[in-house]
Amino acid sequence: MTIEALLAVTVGVLFGAGVYLLLRRTVVRLLIGLALVGNAANLLIFVAASLRRGVPPIASVGETAPPASAADPLAQALILTAIVISFGVLGFALALTDKTVQSAGSTDLDDLVEEDSS
Amino acid sequence: MTVLPVVVPLAWGAILLALGARPRWQRLGSLLAHGCYLAAAVGLFRRVTEDGPQASSLGNWPPPFGIAFCADALAATLVLLTAAVAAPVALFALALADGRWERQGYHALVQVMLAGVSGAFLTTDLFNLFVWFEVTLISSFVLLTLGGGKAQVQGGFKYVALNLLSSVVFLSAAGLLYGTTGTLNLADLGSRPIEPRDAWLVGLVGVLFLSTFSIKAALFPVFFWLPAAYPTPAAPVAALFAGVLTKVGVYAMLRTGSVFFAEATGVWTPLLLALSVPTMLVGVLGAVVQSDWRRILAFHSVSQVGYMVAAVGIGGKAGFLAAVLFMVHHGLVKSALFVAAGVGWRLGGSYRLGKLGGFARSHGLFSALFLILALSLAGLPPTSGFAAKLAAVRAALEGGHGWIAGAMVATGLFTLYSMVKIWNEAFWKPAPETMELRRPAPREMALLHLPLAAFAAMALLVGLGVGPALPAASRSADLDRQAYVRAVMGGPEP
């Protein structure tokens, strides 16, 4: 129970720090904020699906379900998928940020163009 | 059968990537790929209309454990719409392609995006929905910034940032829902009761899902990415996005709402209804002050999403029919109008209405096709827009939402105003002296007009076909939740 409470608080702190960074005007802080809230979401799934240790989620021969005391493997599969996706997307976002900063000549979000100049 | 509209474009995406920087092969492959996708969509649609909802489970894992896909009438219709939008846009892309796009992987990315969109329409699992959203997003990110112009990169940055945030909200909501109910299979969720002590948590999760779908659909007050992003990319990319992307968000609201959230959470429906009216009005009023062809269209996309979401919120048979009809209408017509803007740019060299003029005299066929499509968006008979708006207003009045019906009619009037503005500026007024009319080769002219003609024909067909049959259709059309659950989970016929 205590480890769950500790992780829940960690999730909250990560979300809070991430949202704080998202609200900054600097492009780079925005990106770090996105990375933080992404990790917070992964940790949230991990906690929400309950934490148990010691019992592998393997159904014995003849059974249709793993023992009830086992941790849910699906949540961990979800997190794994989410980590892979967010890794790729964040990589793209980093490259795009680099281009954005170069083209705008500034790291301030307010300096981005509003109008299409064509 | 059910997974073909996902697998076919994914496979073609890989083939097109492997073809590399060979423009001719890329174009030929792209045409074949769109043909295959269209065939898969038509096949699925016919199968579903004849035999009812089709479900399949990958790897033969029984539900709710396997990754299940299900095509009912709603999903099959939207897949068919996607194919019907993508094919003419592909022709349009051929007219403008100059070899640069092929080297940057344009055709392969379009296929991956189509796979993502079809996956989102066909999946029955909320986590899979997240994955397909991401597949759609990452390909749309690259398509949006393809070429890397200044406005493109900076408009794209806003789009990417907001969508990453929406993905995180989606993921958190999915995690919380799984922790609460132990399943993310929509049909499984829809077929089991919620324990009273979990009701508040499910309500909270419902609002989280609603906010992420709202960002995808560009609902008020989270629509700002759309007018920032849509006017910047290459012309065919904008046309494809306008037709398909927001529909994925509206579809997600319609599907998850009807199967699970509308009933499980009390706030879902009132929120949809309350947000739909400002979406309609802010979108259409935002368009009034614009003077850029594509920015006007982009703001109208926001206002049209308001109609769809209102219809989803009204619900029932009439609301469901109106929502589907509106998605089909808007997918076809808004893509077509973005294609028309691209044709105007190709001929006149600008998207700014002040720099254009005289198309009515110099390009009669183009003008006539634009007029049909613009009047369809404004909702004049006998076009698809009239049928869709009539269905939406009827649904609002029958549901007792007079104020929503009023907002719909007012929005329609302003839409007409915007369309007349484009017509007056780009088509009717004499060409400004600075405008240099370009004269593409006959083959390119044919490729520029063909997609517009196809879209106009489809808009008229939908209008003439559905309009008169509306009263009968609104009695028989229904989003059959039980049939959906049965098709996915298995189980006896009632």
Task: Walk me through the structure.
- The complex is a heterodimer of chains A (118) and B (494).
- By secondary structure, chain A is mostly helical.
- Chain A is 64% helix and 0% strand.
- Chain A contains three helices and no strands.
- Chain A is elongated.
- Chain A starts with a helix and ends in a 14-residue tail after the last helix.
- In chain A, 25% of the residues are buried.
- Chain B has one domain (4-489).
- In chain B, helix 14 (316-348) packs antiparallel against helix 16.
- The A-B interface holds A 22, 27, 30-31, 34, 37-38, 40-42, 44-45, 47-50, 74-75, 78, 81-82, 85-86, 88-90, 92-93, 96-97, 99-100, 103-104, 112-118 and B 127, 130-131, 134, 137-138, 141-142, 145, 148, 150-151, 153-158, 160-161, 164-165, 167-168, 171-172, 174-176, 178-180, 228, 231-232, 292, 294-295, 345, 350-352.
Please sum up the structure shown.
Chain A has 118 residues and is mainly α.
- Quaternary structure state of the chains depicted: heterodimer
Greatest chain-chain contact: A-B, 41 and 42 residues
CATH topology-level fold name of chain A: Helix Hairpins
What is the makeup of the main sheet of chain A? none
Helix content, binned percent of chain B: over 70%
Which strand-content bin applies to the residues of chain A? Answer: under 5%
Order of strands side by side in the largest beta sheet of chain B? Answer: 1-2
Give a count of the beta strands of chain A, DSSP E runs of length 2 or more: 0
Order of helices and strands of chain B: HHEEHHHHHHHHHHHHHHHHHHH
How many domains in all of chain A?
1
- Give, in order, the helices and strands of chain A: HHH
**Average pLDDT figure of chain B:** 86
Low-confidence parts of chain A = none
Rg of chain A (CA only): 20 Å
